[in-house]
Amino acid sequence: MSEDNSSYCNFETYSLIWLDASINSGDNIETQAKFRSFINHLQIFENPDQCEQHIRSVLSQDRIVFVVSGSLGIHLVPKIHSLQQIFSIYIYCANLPFHREWAQHYIKVKSVCDQFNDLINRIQCDHSDRRQNKSDEPLSMSIFDKDNDYEQSTTGLDGRFLQTQLLITCLIKMRTTSTDKDEFILKCREIYKGNDKQLIFIDEFEREYVDEHSLWWYSRETFLYRLLNKALRIQNIDFLFLFRFFIRDIENQLYENRYLSPTRVYRGQLISLDELNILKRSQNKLISVNSFLSTSLNRQTALFFLGSFPYNDTYERVLFEIDADPRKDGVKPFADLSKFNCFPEEEFLMTIGSVFYLKNIYLGENRIWHIEMELCGNIDGDLHNTFHHLQNQYSLNSRGLLEFGNLLIDMAYFDHAEKYFGRLLKQLTRQHKNIYKCYHGLAKICCEKGNYDLSIDYLNKSFASLKNLKLNDSRTGYIYNSMGEAQQKKGDIDQALQSYEKALEIFKKTFKDDDENIAWCYNNLGIVYQDKKQYKEARKYLNEALIIKLKHLPPKHPCLANTYNNLGNVHYYFHEYDTALEMYQLSYEILSKSMTPVHPSIARLLMNIGIIYETKQNFSEAKMNYEKAHFIRTKVLSSTHPDLIHTKNDIIRLSLIQ
Fold first, then answer.
1. Contact of 45 with 23, CB cutoff 8 Å
2. Options 1.10.10.10, 3.40.1050.10, 1.10.730.10, 1.25.40.10; which CATH number does 555-658 get?
3. Hey, which of 315, 442, 453, 609 has its CA 20 to 30 A from 42?
4. Which CATH number is 141-379 given?
């Protein structure tokens, strides 16, 4: 594999992988440049084993256009043909009859050519058709499925929905600076270096873009549509941060040009068999689409484009039929792009996070599945209230990096949060009123990552900043609470207790006895008394915390789940295992609706559930929960984090028992 291609990731959905023993010959170098003019991410291989290994490492939701010589393809195509990420295959060879004979058995092989120009023209033509109809552009939908081990992209409204809504709200409300577009364009030029066609578009965007033309730019076949859809689908935080001005402009344009009459729109879509099965189980449930959704007013147009993809054993063809009534309360805006679009199609665009009710799903003619949906307005009242409470909690109307960083912490994007707090720290002077909050944020990140000493160092800097600013009020209470958490995780239980008691003393001077901040202190005191094995005292504080939280928080707020989990721990130590399990299950129900599925809090809860089952000697259930927790922790924690090591050891220990 060439060194320059291995060092960067694919920011688009499509990539072109080319395997040929003579890949670096003079003629092939020129062909590589032609390929990049329509599929930017090109990777070349001479070794078939390395090529296969790379193909298997690509996300299943991505799309690979695979070009291979006949002599290597005859051996490799049978191995990789069934992979979801392999979308189409093109074979270049000298012996057409021989290679067409074996290739006809593989439906993803689109062409066998003996002339490079024919090969390039066929790939370019096929790719142009795909760009126009968008049927193969993967969708990211939230439909919770409890049996999928958190890996499905098509996943009832789980925590992905709520967290995505908060993320987009935060991004579009952030302040715009004079360098936003410059930073974005610089990154685009880096991605498309050497791609003359897209660099021309980037230059044009830099010269001519204005916010009222955002929908026109989105509807054009340029780098913008490709990059934004991929970034939204995989939640590429850094790129969404750069894209925030463009996302905000599109949202504003959709609102200003929102369609005012009831209508029915259609979208043809290729989805995997696993995704289709999840959708079948989701009939009469709500789903949300976590990106902008392009649809057509013309049913025949959607069917025509969908029909251009033959049926195969990897993808199912689906026609979404969507009834949209903008007069309903709470319906997100959608717009007719006819006056913006570069194409004459009757295209409608729906905004990020649109929610739909899945009414019916059935198999129609030509093996095309039909999914009937209805655009929804106000959804689950508890979820709606939780969103607005969290929006206020994160102060998302403050529009700064500080709020963005705190949201990323709670989304378990710890490395990203650290990066943006570091960015903010460089911008602030020692006398800035928010410098102590920045140190506090970095401390919380270090605590989550298991670096407790560094967390305490940052908290001491936060204290020093408050002293420097001559602020000695309730703000110190928040720092004492975080100090106690780091000390407790480090094993300094008595010091943690002192920190929590200081926080409570400060808050009681500032807030009413039933304030949420008092509940936070009670919760932490309950945990530390649990560690001191003073379980009656622990239960007293946790029950007091719960009473206050139930008074102020919506039923699906994650802070409630935290207290239910802690009460479950106390019931466990009192040997009240069934009651403990009820507490854990109640906590899980809340967290699954309010946090991302790979959040450390969910892993911690699964470990506790596993402990109950192990205590009851149900070792298979215990191991299953430990393994789910381990999966989550491998996604968000470093290999040296004590929680990950602990989980791994528990799985090994149980494996020896079974």
1. yes
2. 1.25.40.10
3. 315
4. 3.90.176.10
DSSP-derived 3-state class of residue 390? helix
Instruction: Give me the residue spans of the domains in the chain.
Output: 3-133, 141-379, 555-658
Ranges under pLDDT 70 in the chain: 1-8, 25-27, 129-134, 143-158, 308-312, 341-345, 378-383, 394-398, 471-472, 658
- Compute CA distances 388 → 166, 266, 384, 433, 516, whole Å: 9, 31, 7, 26, 16
Q: What is the dihedral of CA 600, 606, 610, 612, to 10 degrees?
A: 110
The number of C-alpha atoms within 13 Å of 502 and in the hemisphere containing its C-beta is: 18
Angstrom distance (rounded) from CA 326 to CA 376: 9
Record the pTM.
0.86
Q: How many residues does the chain have?
A: 658
Q: Report pLDDT digits (tens) over 608-629.
A: 999 999 999 999 999 999 999 9
368: left (phi over 0), alpha (psi -120 to 50) or beta: beta
> 604, 622 in Cβ contact below 8 A?
no
Q: For domain 3-133, give the CATH number.
A: 3.40.50.2300
Q: What angle do CA 83, 89, 91 make, to 5 degrees?
A: 140
Calpha distance 442→611 (Å, rounded): 32
Q: Cα(271)–Cα(278) distance, rounded to whole angstroms?
A: 11
